[in-house]
């Protein structure tokens, strides 16, 4: 077999690109009532044979069929038989060697993704699926990050035993804490909180968990089959159609309950190099340096070569498939900085063409773990290159996150809310979603304002690490201040599930493969910290009434006015007028005080309604002339027309 460097030289020739770039839309298995076809792209294979199985895991093939060579490096076989539910794989001969593998373009598979499966479109649709659609867009994007298994695994959530940790848990309405019939969990809890988007951590087929082991756990950032739902979240991973139907039922239930759904996608690397893609076309889909060293900018052992034509198209078609087949409303790209700018803009454009400009959310992590061997003139979709991205391709804003709570990797380094001085200007820049002089950011639409996600310490654990010996009362005040700051920044709002009830992982900052007992969502904690949850609810409710902060246009930063700063405190006013979104308040006054001293600030003429003060959501109280900002707290005032 050729070396990696030899393969690389072949793929980079103009002859290979012109002779073998296939633009057809029929790759994979297409199953209809009257025909089933299989198309594999493997340009340098010498022979390909298709094997059919009745079981998705074991047993001998009941049929084997040589495939015929087609155009542009494809191999084909078809039958007039409807093979819905039949499993299959390929045997390929190349350079005197033979390999067996599943379909890189598979849309269904058996347990643990070993064998692919033919599936008839529509046969996996739950009742009413054709009528399913996303709920109307809310006043603001409030994105709530959830792991399917974490969501319902703990008994405190009140989910039926058979549904705990499964897709089907999302179809169970009106669950309550320990089945007490009083305290909502699950869907009702999220509705009360004010969530508008649910971001699902990886739900495609991934490799780090045995799908038959109900106790296994992983975050899932290790793809195997990009176009197939993960089987460990289904009630029956051994039958490929079950995971598809139950996934759709989950989406249907989320939509019915008023939530749009974002899918966390990981196109930058795969579980290992022993993949269907790499066996079909060795080293085409992966980056390598000139000396043959495998590129590892993901820190996961491999980097996907998104800039190569067939690889970029593979990713694009995968995104479009999830949007069409599964009604997904947005995509969060893991380590987006390892993908190329052209591909990200192409994805944005194609989604816009099909669904309307900006209707599907697209954003990602604008960084990489290390240097990557991206080829040619391609440019990485890094934070430093955000100006080259479409205005509706967004990024997580680490500047906002770190300014508010402190360094993401240095556990004991605090931020503005937990005691570090000199960050006042960064906080004010965060308020404007970094639409400041010298910035490449086009509008707040490109910014995800957040302070916690699945990675790194939870917010509560970060506060514990930076505030050793602090009382619970002080910790809660700081948590409330942190929430008030980012929820009054322009941009899209994002929070890790459970942040609002002081979620903890006992100080573990990378719990990706630690036991579910540590990672699970502890619904009991939501009511132990009911005051904090209520504060988050109030902030989200107010946010939706503040068009001056929800504004995503390029001119939005101009609404932020009258900025002031002093040691450990800042403030500003907001033009809150919006003809298309009537608000109770035409102007807002917002101040953050991270110091241990009371601050008094003058107000412009008129009566100001106190909306938030001293860690509480207020109702029908007013002030004039001067506002008092208590230590470690935020104040939000509104002026009525």
Automatic annotation (TrEMBL):
CDD domains registered for this protein in UniProt: AmyAc_Pullulanase_LD-like, E_set_Pullulanase
Name of the protein in its database record: Type I pullulanase
Annotated ranges, domain Glycosyl hydrolase family 13 catalytic: 145-543
Signal peptide positions (record): none
Similarity comment: family membership: Belongs to the glycosyl hydrolase 13 family.
GO molecular function (one): pullulanase activity
EC number, as in UniProt: 3.2.1.41
Top EC class, one word: hydrolase
Family annotation (InterPro entries): GH, GH13_cat_dom, Glyco_hydro_13_N, Glyco_hydro_b, Ig-like_fold, Ig_E-set, PulA_typeI
Superkingdom of this protein's organism: Bacteria
Keywords: Glycosidase, Hydrolase
Protein's organism: Blautia ammoniilytica
């Amino acid at each position: 077999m050729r070396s990696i460097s030899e393969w690389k030289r072949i793929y980079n020739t103009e002859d290979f690109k012109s002779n073998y770039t296939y633009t057809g839309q029929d790759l994979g298995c297409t199953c209809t009532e009257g025909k089933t076809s299989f198309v594999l792209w493997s340009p340098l294979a010498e022979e390909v044979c298709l094997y059919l199985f009745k079981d998705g895991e074991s047993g001998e093939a009941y049929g084997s069929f040589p495939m015929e060579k087609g155009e542009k490096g494809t191999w084909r076989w078809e039958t007039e038989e409807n093979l819905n539910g039949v499993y299959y794989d390929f045997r390929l001969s190349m350079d005197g060697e033979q390999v067996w593998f599943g379909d890189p373009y598979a849309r269904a598979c058996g347990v643990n993704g070993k064998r692919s499966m033919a599936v008839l479109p529509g046969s996996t649709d739950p009742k009413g699926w054709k009528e399913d659609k996303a709920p109307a867009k809310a006043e603001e994007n409030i994105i709530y990050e959830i792991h399917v298994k974490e969501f319902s695994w703990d008994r405190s959530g009140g989910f039926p035993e058979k549904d705990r940790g499964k897709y089907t848990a999302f179809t169970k309405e009106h669950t309550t804490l320990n089945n007490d019939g009083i305290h909502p969990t699950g869907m009702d809890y999220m509705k009360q909180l004010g969530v508008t988007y649910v971001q699902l951590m990886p739900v495609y087929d991934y490799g780090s968990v045995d799908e038959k082991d109900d106790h296994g756990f992983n975050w899932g950032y290790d793809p195997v089959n990009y176009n197939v739902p993960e089987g460990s979240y289904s009630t029956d991973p051994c039958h490929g159609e079950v995971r598809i139907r139950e996934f759709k039922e989950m989406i249907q239930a989320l939509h019915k309950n008023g939530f749009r759904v974002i899918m966390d996608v990981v196109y930058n690397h795969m579980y290992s190099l022993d993949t269907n893609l790499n066996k079909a076309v060795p080293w085409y889909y992966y980056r390598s340096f000139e000396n043959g060293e495998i590129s590892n900018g993901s820190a996961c052992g491999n980097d996907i070569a998104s800039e190569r034509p067939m690889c970029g198209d593979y990713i694009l078609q995968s995104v479009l498939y999830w949007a069409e087949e599964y009604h997904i409303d947005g995509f969060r790209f893991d380590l987006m900085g390892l993908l190329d700018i052209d591909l990200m803009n192409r994805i944005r454009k194609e989604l816009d063409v099909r669904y309307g400009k900006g209707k599907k959310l697209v954003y990602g992590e604008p960084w990489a773990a290390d240097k990557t061997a991206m080829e040619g003139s391609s440019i990485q979709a890094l934070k430093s290159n955000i100006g080259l991205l479409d205005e509706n391709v967004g990024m997580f804003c680490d500047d906002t996150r770190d300014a508010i709570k402190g360094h993401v990797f240095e556990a004991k380094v605090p931020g503005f809310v937990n005691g570090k001085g000199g960050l006042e200007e960064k906080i004010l820049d965060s308020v404007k979603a970094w639409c400041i002089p010298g910035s490449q950011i086009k509008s707040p639409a490109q910014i995800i304002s957040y302070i916690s996600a699945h990675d790194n310490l939870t917010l509560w654990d970060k506060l514990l690490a930076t505030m050793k010996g602090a009382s619970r009362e002080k910790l809660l005040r700081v948590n409330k201040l942190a929430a008030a700051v980012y929820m009054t920044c322009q941009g899209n709002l994002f929070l890790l599930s459970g942040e609002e009830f002081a979620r903890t992982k006992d100080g573990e900052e990378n719990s990706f493969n630690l036991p579910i007992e540590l990672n699970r969502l502890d619904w009991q904690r939501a009511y132990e910290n009911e005051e904090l949850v209520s504060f988050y609810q109030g902030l989200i409710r107010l946010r939706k009434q503040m068009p001056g902060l929800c504004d995503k246009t390029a001119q939005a930063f101009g609404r932020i006015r009258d900025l002031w700063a002093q040691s450990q405190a800042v403030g500003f006013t907001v033009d809150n007028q919006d003809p298309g979104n009537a608000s109770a308040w035409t102007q807002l006054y917002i101040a953050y005080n991270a110091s241990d001293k009371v601050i008094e600030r003058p107000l412009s003429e008129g009566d100001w309604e106190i909306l938030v003060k001293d860690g509480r959501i207020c109702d029908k109280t007013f002030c004039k002339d001067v506002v008092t900002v208590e230590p470690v707290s935020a104040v939000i005032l509104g002026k009525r027309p």
